[in-house]
Amino acid sequence: MSILVLIETEEGKIKKSSQEAISFAAAMGETTAVALGEVSDEELAKAGANGAKRVLHAADSRLNAGLIQPYAEVLTEAAKQTGAKVVVSAKSSLADAVVGRVSVKLGAALVSNVVGLPDETNGFVVKRSIYTGKAFAHVKMTTEVKILTVKKNAIEMKTDGALAVVEKLEIELDDALFEAKITASEKAEGDILLPEADLVVSGGRGLKGPENWSIIEDLAKTLGAATGCSKPVSDMEWRPHHEHVGQTGVKVSPSLYIAVGISGAIQHLAGVNSSKYIVVINKDEDAPFFKAADYGIVGDAFDVLPKLTAALKNV
Amino acid sequence: MNILVCITHVPDTTSRIAFTNDNTVFDKNGVQFIIGPYDDYALARAVELKEQNGGEITVLNVGEADADPTIRKALAIGADKAIRINAFPSDSFFVANQIAAVAKEGNYDLILMGRESIDFNGGMVHGMVGEMLGLPSFSPVMKLDVNDGAAHITREIEGGKEELDVNLPFVAGCQEPIAEWKIPNMRGIMSARTKPLEIREVADDAQHVALKNYELPPAKGEVKMIDADNVQELVNLLKNEAKVI
Ligand SMILES: Cc1cc2nc3c(=O)[nH]c(=O)nc-3n(C[C@H](O)[C@H](O)[C@H](O)COP(=O)(O)OP(=O)(O)OC[C@H]3O[C@@H](n4cnc5c(N)ncnc54)[C@H](O)[C@@H]3O)c2cc1C
Ligand SMILES: Nc1ncnc2c1ncn2[C@@H]1O[C@H](COP(=O)(O)O)[C@@H](O)[C@H]1O
């Protein structure tokens, strides 16, 4: 079976979530990846390690910015050229916006938040996360071509494949597709992206103010973790909105989520409930977050965090 | 301005999720339903845009009759009229088809949705509708201003945000801080009773997926408490037991 997988890049490198998506695709069949915008052939060839045989590259520099319509056009064309039966992408805010359009162009069923390989014993059935991680649904996809967006940790990452062959994807992109003009952008450089992160340290209102965030940042840096926060913290603009975790924010599924001074409201838990391990540090022993935790410390963040950071430095 | 706002009718974010009939039916027992929180942001921004530019807001839901109180709430918040397509919204393609059919007749300047629904968390319907209508679609949109037929939007990208100039009409999947959620006031609630809510039948019943059954995740084990004076124990557990550092 021919599978097409979308590669997203970040600062010239294939995103980790895309590497997972490639591994997922490769476990299903002969996999071609598609990459957009300027990125080096050497980097793209590395998609082979995750299981892609071939990478089609639409190198048009207009594709450097992740604009939704041109992305949808390229993905659709690549799916047609490769005769893909399944199109796979990591779940991301860009992919979400793009694949809906592709599904209409291809007449393909689309299921997002897929958490494991499809069961093909009787049709094509996938398991997906629903109700913000509070349940799963098994759904049967009934069209000939199918599109899946894959949640983090849906599969063990493959890393031992040979280099992929990189080829140009020939495609004409109409100027009209680039009508939306980007007038400004703001991006944290070099930070670990929260949705991609394997370790996350998050702070809540218990930290009292933005000036106290250095204790969160020190711990995060020591661990190599991304930083997150609760909604009131981003509402009060102590932290940028893209760090806000939960029902109305980013949904994370790291191996380790450390929550500091966050009460554990159900809307916050909805964004973290697929973490493998949760550590809660809160001065209130009755904070609801402890019920969802694997490890807990009752204590003052301003006392516990520096000690924890120091102890971790010796690991 | 003529704005279409698509709203979902979903379990309150604090609901306990359970299923009946051999895990094939969602258990509505004791569940409070609300306007999807992201849809609520879209609606709030629509009300503000109407205040600035005049015009009319239509809310649209694809759902069954139990969604009517949720739709009335949207009317109380400030929508002028409502349409409900009478069907169980099981498949995002099916839903997008119904929305596109309504949008084609309406001559809307803006079609606002939530970035995603909180029941199935697909995040797919805005892109589908955009493609079906041949219109641009943007998501997640965290700011939206309109001036003379053109719009200026801010969308979230991973690790940051980006501002764009775009032409109307388009489809947007909204999220905070596009507007503050609005609470209906007494006058809104009274006037919502008499605002038109039109029930339509399905335009096209094609489906791409079929639900087989639901499953709940396994229950979480007991939390291990560690003394605040012994953080080294936590480090040891993370290293040797959880093996995550
Ligand atoms: C529709 C809807 C959607 C929402 N979506 C989200 C969402 O996506 N994400 C989200 O986070 N919230 C969301 N919320 C808000 C949510 O309900 C809570 O209000 C919010 O999560 C609380 O944030 P918090 O835990 O930081 O603050 P608080 O509830 O104020 O908790 C602060 C905690 O810090 C502890 N603390 C205080 N001082 C210290 C100290 N010195 N050391 C250690 N601990 C200390 C306190 O004991 C307390 O537990 C949503 C709400 C609604 C209605
Ligand atoms: N049944 C529905 N009726 C009306 N609008 C819907 C429906 N389902 C989804 N939408 C809209 O599409 C957005 C994205 O939904 P989804 O793709 O299901 O996550 C929602 O926030 C709504 O604005």
Question: What report would you give on this structure?
Answer:
With 315 residues, chain A is an alpha/beta fold. Chain A has helices spanning 16-26, 41-45, 68-82, 93-106, 214-223, 231-235, 266-269, 301-313; strands at 2-7, 9-10, 13-14, 30-36, 54-58, 86-90, 109-114, 125-130, 135-141, 146-150, 165-168, 181-187, 199-203, 226-229, 256-260, 277-282, 295-298. In chain A, 24% of the residues lie in helices and 27% in strands. In chain A, strands 7-10-6-1-4-5-11 form a seven-stranded parallel sheet. Chain A has a five-stranded parallel sheet with strand order 14-13-15-16-17. Chain A has a two-stranded antiparallel sheet with strand order 2-3. In chain A, β15 (256-260), α7 and β16 (277-282) form a beta-alpha-beta unit. Chain B has a single domain, classed as HUPs (Rossmann fold), CATH 3.40.50.620. In chain B, a hairpin with a 4-residue loop joins β3 and β4 (25-26). In chain B, α2 (68-77) crosses α5 (186-192). Chains A and B meet through α3, α4, β7, β8 and β9 of A and α3, α4, β9, β10 and β11 of B. β12 of chain A pairs antiparallel with β11 of chain B, so a sheet runs across the interface. The site of flavin-adenine dinucleotide (FAD) has 26 residues of chain A, from α6, α7 and α8. Adenosine monophosphate binds next to α1, β6, α3, β8 and α4 of chain B.
